[in-house]
Specification:
326 residues, alpha/beta, inorganic pyrophosphatase (n-terminal core), Diaminopimelate Epimerase, Chain A, domain 1, 2 domains, 6-stranded parallel β-sheet, 6-stranded mixed β-sheet, 14 strands, 35% helix
């Protein structure tokens, strides 16, 4: 079945002259790596390519080659010559529902993803839930073509694999992911650079926030999980950023012993919501997130958002409280 999908995707790309690539609205290494990997390959075969991201690029990923091409102006959707849209690692397609209808004419949409909760919203959906990352899915497709893979493309794709497996330390690390990584290194990807930018290179503010998160670890009865919280006031106190607290759930999940099956990190956001990031060694956290808060993701890594909410400490535990809407 994947080979038939790959043929459809290659057919759409071959016919297209002006392609728009989209990241997910949750900017992480996988959406960045898979999107920019495709950018390099498609540009190298002579396609005109635009890249759009709905959110600013975190400093963590500015080492990726050619990220300067990424646009944030929604006017890109009004360009009449665009004849194909490709989105990577977007599990629900929600944010593009308002943008795609603004395009001058309807064009095919290809979705590359590995989230089991993906509702198959694309014209062609290359969704492989057993893949370790969306970058893995993109790599499998690219290997089915005769297109060349530059060191720059390899660097981007390997970034996606490394970040979604926390450098091959999570249960979703597959032999396919390891094989792909070896091939990408042979093609010129620099693994030490990826490790330095994504797993090290933390600011003092970030380290203080991570330390606070570890200090607050508690048992969360909502999900029967090990949890922690980051308040909006914490980020302000240490003059940090949202980027500084990204990755805490993956780190805790990798560091805690095996009796801690599920990890949840709750974080207050600027828009008055509470976001949750979940990691698991076995339980289906995508199902848990969907049932409790309408979230989603894939079996071992998921997230959710609770609007009009704040975090409150009660008897050594933290709870999510709804803020009355006036």
């Amino acid at each position: 079945m994947p080979s038939l999908l790959y043929e459809k995707v290659q057919e759409h790309i071959s016919k297209a002259e002006h392609i728009l690539l989209l990241t997910d609205e949750r900017i992480d290494g996988d959406t960045m790596g898979s999107t920019m990997g495709l950018f390099h390959v498609l540009a190298d075969i002579g396609k005109r390519v635009e890249v759009f991201s709905p959110k600013p690029l975190p400093n963590t990923f500015k080492y990726l080659p050619r990220v300067d091409v990424i646009r944030r102006d929604i006017e890109v959707f009004l360009e009449s010559t665009i004849d194909l849209v490709i989105i990577c690692d977007c599990s629900d397609g929600e944010y593009i529902k308002k943008l795609l209808p603004t395009m001058p004419h309807k064009v095919p949409l290809i979705s590359f993803d590995h989230h089991s909760t993906n509702p198959m919203y694309g014209t062609v959906n290359v969704v492989e839930p057993k893949a370790a990352s969306t970058a893995d899915v993109v790599w499998r497709f690219l290997k089915s073509t005769d297109w060349s893979i530059s060191p720059e493309a390899a660097q981007c794709i390997l970034t996606g694999i490394c970040t979604d497996t926390v450098l091959f330390s999570t249960p979703n690390t597959t032999t396919d992911a390891l094989d792909a990584s070896a091939e990408l290194v042979k093609l010129g990807a620099q693994l030490p650079e990826i490790v330095r930018h994504n797993l090290m290179n933390k600011s003092v503010s970030a380290l203080k926030l991570w330390g606070l998160a570890m200090e607050r670890l508690y048992h969360d009865t909502t999900f029967d999980a090990t949890a922690t919280v980051i308040m909006k006031a914490d980020i302000e106190k240490f003059q940090g950023t949202e980027e500084d607290v990204s990755g805490i759930s993956g780190f805790l999940h990798a560091m805690l012993d095996t009796q801690h099956e599920v990890v949840v990190v709750y974080r207050e956001t600027d828009d008055g919501s509470v976001k949750g990031s979940m990691r698991s060694r076995g339980r289906d956290v995508a199902k848990l997130a969907a049932e409790k808060y309408g979230g989603g993701g894939h079996k071992l890594a998921a997230g959710f958002k609770i609007p009009n909410s704040k975090l409150m400490e009660k008897d050594g535990r933290w709870v999510v409280e709804k803020i009355p809407v006036v």
